[in-house]
Design goal:
The protein is elongated and about 50 Å long. Helix 2 packs across helix 3. The protein starts with a strand and ends with a strand. It has three helices and seven strands, in the order E-H-E-E-H-H-E-E-E-E. Helices cover about 30% and strands about 25% of the residues.
């Protein structure tokens, strides 16, 4: 199947790689003249990391970042954790951008 992905950002390239793995003939279109880091960072939760593992770049992505423990606070400044989730569910990988 011929598939067109518009946008060569993180989501577009990951989508293209995933579709190629299942047999799609993928064309990625990008308006920008070059792909470059914007100087921002991105937080990747476990479900995103599993997808990166699936397409074969999980180890490389993990090596680029570090774990962060997400904290949420009530109006008085006390940490809030949902009883439905464990501490590990609040951790994500922060990959800092390079300007």
């Amino acid at each position: 199947m011929r598939t067109v992905v518009v946008g060569a950002g993180l989501v577009g390239l990951t989508t293209a790689a995933s579709l190629a793995l299942i047999g799609h003939d993928v064309l990625v279109l990008e308006h920008a003249p070059e792909v470059r880091a914007a100087g921002a960072g991105i937080g990747l939760w476990e479900n995103a990391l599993r997808e990166f593992d699936h397409i074969g770049v999980g180890g490389t992505v993990r090596a680029m970042g570090g774990p962060i423990d997400a904290c949420f606070f009530d109006p008085a400044g006390r940490p809030v954790r949902s009883a439905r989730y464990q501490d590990a569910d609040h951790r994500f990988l922060l990959v800092r951008g390079r300007a």
